[in-house]
């Protein structure tokens, strides 16, 4: 069998690989992105039906959502390292297959407890699947080619954010075969099965790294540390800070620090480690990951207060709220799918800086409009589109930037580190932005609108930190000038 990755390994002659096969492989991994993103958004629409069918308590409903995020975020590093060690295509296909089986278990759940456990299993299998997507793209394309290819990821994420809740509502309304809300999970079966069959034939047949081993103790330390951090942040956002949660956060943070220093010590001794500390010596990787962390805090926090303020503050229905999101999602797609591929190679880091400033302006104008009672007119839609364009042009470049100078044998680890930073950042955004938003006392509509000002201040601060990190990036992000000299 032809070595699909030989061209990528040489870093130059990518034409040796059939463009048609590369395209099929690319859209196969893009399907996995659809599965992962959809299952973090589509379930929100199904929660009322799940509550009625399974007599789910409010706490169970929260953990149907949070359980998925918890296991996904805590196991991403292990998933990335598995791909580096055993081959990204092989681990990808295993991950997709397991994700589909976990989705079927979700659809067959007979109690809230069963559904929560199935969702946690789904998140764990997603952690095996997700890091391989960006890693495979990194292996297939050059750094500059990745800019346009990874732009599709942003477009799909934007589409899923808009269409996911709507599709969930349609599936429940159709009630095919009397399955109701179960279709939200069972729909993954035909999609995932098709991805596995096509991927088996099209994905690059890469061999495992002969000298790369898994560090199971390190994997356990980081899983426990990140899991504890996510649990403390998610639970704190729901019930408020408590001494027990603060203690858990401190202990979990200590575990992560211990895991970091342990990994550095092991790498110096030539032993395997679950992370690669040397990656943080690469400027594009280090500042790109930290910027993604700050951006995720702002973006997830903004989407939280946007949805809550429109429904509880202005009285919109879930469907009306989803429709108001359309200009925002359209802006994200314009930024990621159109502006980033065309402008990033020419403008470099100036483009994400401009995107961050545009997002600050757009989110501020949108939240001020909602606070003033605007539930949907051209001004609000324009502000949301500006925020979306800013989001796309800030976040879209971060993936290609993070992996721009990473060696191919660390592709999975680099991708998983980025995704972990995004997950922890998103949970932190829910805690900090949500805490600021709900700091205004009261449960009435006026309180839900009054909380927008403190929430907006936290969002702007997080975006400002993301911009500062981008400014620390080297001017020659993708090495064009270095390559030209060579």
- Taken from the alpha-carbon principal axes, the silhouette is globular
Query: Cα-atom Rg, whole angstroms?
Result: 22 Å
Sheet of most strands:
none
- Assign a percent range to the helix content: over 70%
Sequence of secondary-structure elements: HHHHHHHHHHHHHHHHHHHH
> How many β strands by DSSP?
0
Kindly estimate the percentage of residues that lie in beta strands according to DSSP. Answer: under 5%
DSSP helical segment count: 20
User: What structural class do the secondary elements suggest?
Assistant: mainly alpha
Average per-residue pLDDT, rounded, comes to 81
Poorly predicted parts:
1-16, 480-486
N-end to C-end Cα span: 33 Å
Structural overview:
This protein is mainly alpha-helical and 486 residues long. The protein is 79% helix and 0% strand. The protein contains 20 helices and no strands. It has helices at residues 6-10, 19-54, 58-86, 88-108, 112-140, 143-174, 183-186, 188-202, 216-239, 243-268, 283-313, 318-324, 326-347, 350-371, 378-395, 398-402, 411-437, 445-450, 452-471, 480-485. Helix 2 packs antiparallel against helix 8, helix 9 (216-239) packs parallel to helix 17 and helix 13 (326-347) runs antiparallel to helix 14. It is globular and about 60 Å long. The model is unreliable at 1-16 and 480-486 (pLDDT under 50).
Summary of the model, kept short:
The protein is mainly alpha-helical and 486 residues long. Helix content is 79%, strand content 0%. Helix 2 packs antiparallel against helix 5 (112-140), helix 11 (283-313) runs parallel beside helix 14 and helix 11 (283-313) packs antiparallel against helix 19 (452-471).
């Amino acid at each position: 069998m032809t070595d699909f990755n030989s061209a990528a390994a040489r870093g130059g002659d990518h034409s040796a690989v059939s463009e048609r096969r590369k395209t099929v492989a690319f859209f196969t991994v893009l399907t996995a992105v659809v599965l992962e993103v959809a299952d973090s958004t589509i379930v929100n629409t199904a929660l009322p039906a799940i509550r009625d069918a399974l007599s789910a308590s409010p706490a169970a409903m929260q953990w149907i959502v949070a359980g998925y995020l918890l296991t996904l975020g805590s196991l991403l590093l292990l998933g990335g390292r598995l791909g580096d060690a055993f081959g990204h295509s092989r681990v990808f296909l295993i991950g997709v297959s397991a994700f589909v089986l976990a989705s079927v278990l979700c659809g067959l759940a007979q109690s809230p407890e069963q559904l929560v456990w199935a969702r946690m299993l789904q998140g764990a299998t997603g952690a095996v699947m997700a890091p391989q997507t960006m890693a495979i793209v990194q292996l297939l394309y050059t750094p500059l080619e990745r800019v346009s290819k990874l732009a599709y990821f942003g477009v799909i994420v934007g589409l899923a954010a808009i269409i996911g809740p709507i599709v969930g509502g349609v599936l429940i309304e159709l009630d095919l075969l009397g399955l109701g809300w179960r279709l939200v999970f069972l729909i993954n079966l035909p999609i995932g099965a098709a991805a596995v069959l096509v991927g088996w034939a099209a994905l690059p047949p890469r061999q495992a790294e002969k000298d790369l081993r898994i560090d199971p103790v390190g994997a356990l330390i980081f899983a426990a540390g990140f899991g504890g951090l996510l649990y403390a942040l998610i639970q704190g956002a729901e019930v408020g800070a408590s001494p027990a949660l603060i203690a858990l956060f401190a202990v979990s943070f200590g575990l992560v620090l211990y895991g970091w220093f342990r990994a550095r010590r092991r790498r110096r001794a030539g032993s395997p480690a679950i992370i690669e500390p040397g990656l943080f010596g690469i400027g594009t990787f280090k500042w790109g990951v930290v910027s993604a962390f700050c951006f995720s805090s702002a973006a997830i926090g903004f989407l939280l207060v946007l949805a809550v303020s429109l429904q509880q503050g202005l009285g919109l229905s879930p469907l009306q709220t989803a429709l108001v999101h359309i200009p925002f999602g359209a802006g994200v797609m314009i930024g990621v799918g159109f502006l980033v591929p065309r402008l990033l190679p020419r403008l470099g880091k100036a483009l994400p800086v401009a995107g961050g400033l545009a997002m600050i302006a757009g989110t501020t104008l949108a939240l001020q409009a909602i606070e003033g009672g605007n539930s949907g007119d051209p001004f609000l839609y324009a502000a949301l589109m500006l925020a979306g364009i800013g989001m796309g042009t800030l976040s879209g470049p971060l993936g290609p930037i993070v992996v721009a100078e990473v060696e191919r044998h660390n592709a999975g680890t680099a991708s998983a580190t980025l995704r972990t930073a995004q997950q922890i950042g998103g949970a932190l955004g829910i805690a900090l932005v949500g805490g600021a938003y709900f700091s205004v006392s009261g449960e009435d509509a006026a309180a839900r609108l009054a909380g927008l000002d403190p929430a907006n201040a936290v969002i702007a601060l997080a975006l400002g930190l993301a911009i500062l990190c981008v400014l620390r990036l080297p001017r020659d992000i993708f090495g064009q000038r270095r390559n030209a000299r060579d």
